[in-house]
Amino acid sequence: MALRSTAGGWGSVTRTFHWGMLVLLLGIVSVGYYMTTLPLGPVKLKIYALHKSIGLTLLVLAILRALWRLSEQRPALPVMPIWQVRVAHSAHLLLYGLLLLMPLSGWLYNSASGFPLQWFHVLNLPALARADPHLKVLARSVHEIGAVALIGVVALHALVALKHHFIDNDVTLRRMLPWRGDRF
Ligand code: HEM
Ligand code: HEM
Asked: What is the pLDDT of residue 55?
C-alpha cells in the first residue's frame, strides 16, 4: 500500500491516522464521561490527568493529520449526486473542526480553572488564558456540547460509510480499511 493517497485510494498514512484516532477517541470519550462520575480523590485526579494527556496527544495528531491531508490529493468519490459530494466534504471538514475544538476547549477550560497542565509528566504546558470563572463556564460548555456533536457526527459518518458498503455496494469503506491493499 502506498504511503500517499492516489486518485484511486487512500494511502497508508491517512488510513493509520483515521483508525488510530478512532481508537484514541473511543478511549478518551469513555474516560471523559466516566471520570466525571468519580468521587474526588487521587484516582479521579490521575484519570483526569490521563484524559488531558491523551487529549493533547490527539491535538497534535489532528494538526499533523490535517497538514498531511492538505499535502495530498484525495481519491475520487464514487459517482453520486453533487449534494452528496458537498455533504461528504462538509462532514469531513466538520470532523476536523471538532478534532481541534475538543482539545483546545479542554485546554482553555483547564487554564480558566487555574490548574497547571502536563503532558504525561513529561512536558509542562502554558496556560491559554488567566483563571476566569466566566471563561471557565464558557469553555466547559463548549467542551460538553462539542463532545455530543462529535459523537453525533461520527455516528452519522459511520452509518453513511456502512450504507455505501452494504446498500450501494461501492468501494468507499473498502478503500479506507487498514487491511485492504490498493486493490479493492
Ligand atoms: C479530542 C480531545 C478530547 C475529547 C474528545 C474530550 C472529551 C471529553 C468528554 C466526553 C468529557 C465528559 C463531558 C461531560 O462531562 O459532559 C470531557 C470532560 C473533560 N475534559 Fe475532555 N476531551 C478532550 C480533550 C481534553 C483536553 C486536552 C483537556 C484538558 C487539557 C480536557 C479536559 C477535560 C476536563 C477537565 C473535563 C471534565 C469536566 C468537568 O469535570 O467538569 N479534555 N472531555
Ligand atoms: C466506525 C467509525 C468510522 C467509519 C466506519 C468511518 C469510515 C470512513 C470512510 C469509509 C471514509 C472514506 C470516505 C471517502 O472516501 O470519502 C472516511 C473518511 C474520513 N473519516 Fe471516517 N470513519 C469512522 C470514524 C471516523 C472518526 C472517529 C473520525 C474523526 C473524528 C473520522 C474522520 C474522517 C475524515 C476526516 C475522513 C476524510 C479522510 C481524511 O481526511 O482522513 N472518521 N471514514
From this structure: 98
Residue 1: pLDDT band (50, 70, 90) is: confident
100 lines ligand 2 (CB under 6 A): no
Report which protein residue has its CA nearest ligand 1's atom 37.
36
Using the predicted structure, report yes or no on whether residue 137 has a pLDDT greater than 90: yes
Unique residue bearing C-alpha cell 459517482 = 79
Residue 170 — φ and ψ, nearest 5°? -105, -175
- Whole-model pTM above 0.90? yes
Which residues does a 6 A CB cutoff place in the pocket of ligand 1? 25, 28-29, 32-33, 36, 48, 51-52, 55-56, 58, 102-103, 106-107, 109-110, 117, 140, 143-144, 147, 150
Domains and CATH numbers, the chain: 12-166 (1.20.950.20)
Three-state SS string over 130-178 comes to: CCCHHHHHHHHHHHHHHHHHHHHHHHHHHHHHHHHHHCCCCCCCCCCCC
CA of 52 to the centre of ligand 1 (A): 7
